[in-house]
Amino acid sequence: MAYDPLAAFRMDGHAVIVTGGAQNIGAGIARAFAGAGAKVLIADLHGDKAAETAKGIAAETGRDVRGMACDVTQEGDIQATVAAAVAAFGGLSTLVNNVGWGGVNPDPLAVTEQQMIDSYKLNTISAYRMTAACVPHLLKAKNAAVINSGSFSSAVPAYDILAYGTAKAALNQLMVSLAHALAKKVRVNSVLIGTVITEGYAAAGIDEATQQRMMHPDTLTGRPGTPEDVANAMLWLASPAGGWVSGQTINVHGGGSVVRLLGH
């Protein structure tokens, strides 16, 4: 049989939970994993939208894709989501902690304590609690993996989204600590995502003019990202192709900012 290097990217036999997967980047991740052969449960705050997205991906890929409501800040919802995935798929091999959101903070010194707490609960604690709930099942799986949707704002000054960037920076520490705690058992990685223009930008308070400027970022690639750009990186990390990668933050942000010397 001829060698097929793409076979290592297949996810046949894998069962995946994608949080925040009803739309935007999350939906792209769910679609990529299902397209590679995985069974996928989309868990989202908006249960109806999750079910609708799951139905469309299932029709497109022919895979078992389901959607359900889940508030990842609520322990009861987390436990119900994990139980539903295990009951439906007979196990669990991959968790994608994709949920994340943060509003704009025009004055970085006026961010309230509650805003910081809320951001930490949604962007960091939820990933920890979801991972903890999944680990007993992941330990039974072959090539088990946890992947977090991080943010490039966690690695650079991001004072206009201070609460969000700070919480995502904490997520980076959580990732590497859990990767070491679960060494040789479950691989844990994060993808630091750059500018991907989605409906979420408007919800975060970023106006249309700013979004238009972001469509032409000053990066090495010169374009914003797409959900598929992020999903492809996550597919690599979760699949056997990424089996020797753990404890890493993978930058998927168009190469970062271009540094121009002498105006050229």
UniProtKB/TrEMBL annotation:
Alphabetically, the GO molecular function entries are: oxidoreductase activity
Task: Kindly name one Pfam family recorded for this protein.
Answer: adh_short_C2
- Keyword check for Cytoplasm, yes or no: no
Query: Keywords of this protein's UniProt record, alphabetized?
Result: Oxidoreductase
Q: Which PROSITE patterns match?
A: ADH_SHORT (PS00061)
Please indicate which superkingdom the organism of origin belongs to.
Answer: Bacteria
Stated family: Belongs to the short-chain dehydrogenases/reductases (SDR) family.
Its recorded name reads 2-deoxy-D-gluconate 3-dehydrogenase
- Natural source organism: Falsiroseomonas bella
